[in-house]
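User: quick one, sequence for these tokens?
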């Protein structure tokens, strides 16, 4: 792999940064300690501007190039997960019940490595905005940063992000144009009937019967309402009702998720869910209320920027290690909020044969850090070259 030589020289330093962040994980939007560590590094590098507390604990660093031009954004997430660590590593989490199980420690490190190189060399025109974001794992920190004026304040014209990918060779780059990750919504359905003795069901309105009929009817949306060429997953993941064997309960609750790529499909699913919930309950003599929570939008890569990112990655890792047609997945990512604001691309970097994301034994492979930092840095240099 043709990792940028100067970035390769940072390897031990980058490994130290990553392991420090790994040992001190923070949750959700409250990434203040990680943000302070990032700010300290950016100051050491001589970054021109450092903006703190954008989107609660987000950080944006600005590096000016050596010529006039637009601003390109590079994004990394900083937050960890509320789960125990079982790696046994010497740099394992020091915070009980919190660990970096999704590689955000590595994502932050790769962006710091790119920042150090870009601040030192400045072989580009315009500016680069280094975006360190909290809250990807739940609250949607990307949305908070967007709403806090990220794009208006810094005039970002294109943006790129990357994510660790276990079970892909270390340093491989994988992505695809168009839909890459789904929109992820969740819902609860609250059903009210009329309880009574299980020996006299005719004197009750049974919410359990309403719930099981409703569950079946909801699946007809996927099989009979949505174009079979389109993609949708409607998963019922919870059903709660009753407390004992001989009582028909008064209420029941269904919960689950809806995952889509297409906004029109999402709207259709919500329309049909609303009708099925209300009408199934009414048909059986009860009442029901749908609470639908709109989560992260779909992550849609721009075709030209994705081709460009893959071409740049091929310079670093070789064409044979770039997967340009990765199958989309139904997971979700709040980088989508940023791609709704401007053109750009999101890609994965291989983490080797390791535990998968969100597992208690996962660890980011430090060997990937110089590769990811080199891809980030070269994207800037190729997208905004110095005038000859």
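Assistant:
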């Amino acid at each position: 792999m043709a990792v940028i030589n100067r970035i390769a020289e940072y390897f031990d330093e980058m490994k130290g940064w990553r392991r420090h962040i790994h040992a001190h994980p923070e949750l959700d939007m409250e990434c203040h300690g990680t943000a302070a560590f990032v700010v300290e590094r950016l100051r050491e590098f001589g970054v021109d501007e450092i903006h703190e507390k954008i989107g609660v604990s987000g950080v944006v660093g600005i590096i000016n190039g050596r010529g006039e031009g637009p601003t390109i954004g590079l994004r990394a997430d900083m937050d960890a997960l509320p789960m125990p660590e079982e790696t046994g590593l010497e740099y394992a989490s020091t915070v009980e019940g919190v660990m970096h199980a999704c590689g955000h420690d590595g994502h932050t490190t790769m962006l710091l490595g790119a920042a150090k190189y870009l601040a030192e060399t400045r072989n580009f025109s315009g500016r680069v905005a280094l975006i360190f974001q909290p809250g990807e794992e739940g609250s949607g920190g990307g949305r908070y940063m967007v709403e806090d004026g990220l794009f208006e304040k810094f005039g970002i014209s294109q943006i790129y992000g990357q994510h660790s990918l276990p079970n892909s060779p270390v340093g491989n780059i994988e992505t695809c144009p168009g839909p890459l990750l789904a929109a992820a919504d969740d819902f609860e359905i609250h059903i009210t009937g009329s309880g009574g003795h299980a020996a006299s069901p005719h004197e009750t309105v049974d919410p359990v019967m309403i719930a099981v009929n409703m569950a079946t009817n909801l699946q007809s949306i996927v099989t009979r309402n949505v174009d079979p060429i389109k993609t949708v997953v409607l998963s019922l993941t919870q059903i709660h009702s009753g407390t004992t064997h001989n009582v028909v309960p008064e209420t029941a609750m269904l919960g689950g998720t809806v995952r889509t790529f297409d906004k029109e499909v999402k709207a259709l699913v919500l329309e049909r869910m609303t009708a099925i919930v209300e009408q199934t309950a009414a048909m059986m003599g009860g009442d029901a209320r749908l609470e639908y929570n709109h989560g992260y939008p779909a992550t849609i890569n721009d075709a030209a920027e994705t081709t460009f990112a893959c071409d740049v990655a091929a310079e670093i890792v070789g064409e044979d290690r770039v997967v340009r047609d990765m199958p989309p997945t139904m997971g979700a990512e709040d980088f989508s909020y940023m791609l709704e604001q401007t053109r750009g691309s999101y890609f994965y970097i291989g983490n080797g044969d390791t535990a998968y994301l969100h597992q208690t034994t996962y660890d980011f492979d430090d060997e990937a850090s110089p590769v990811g930092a080199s891809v980030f840095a070269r994207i800037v240099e190729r997208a905004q070259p110095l005038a000859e």
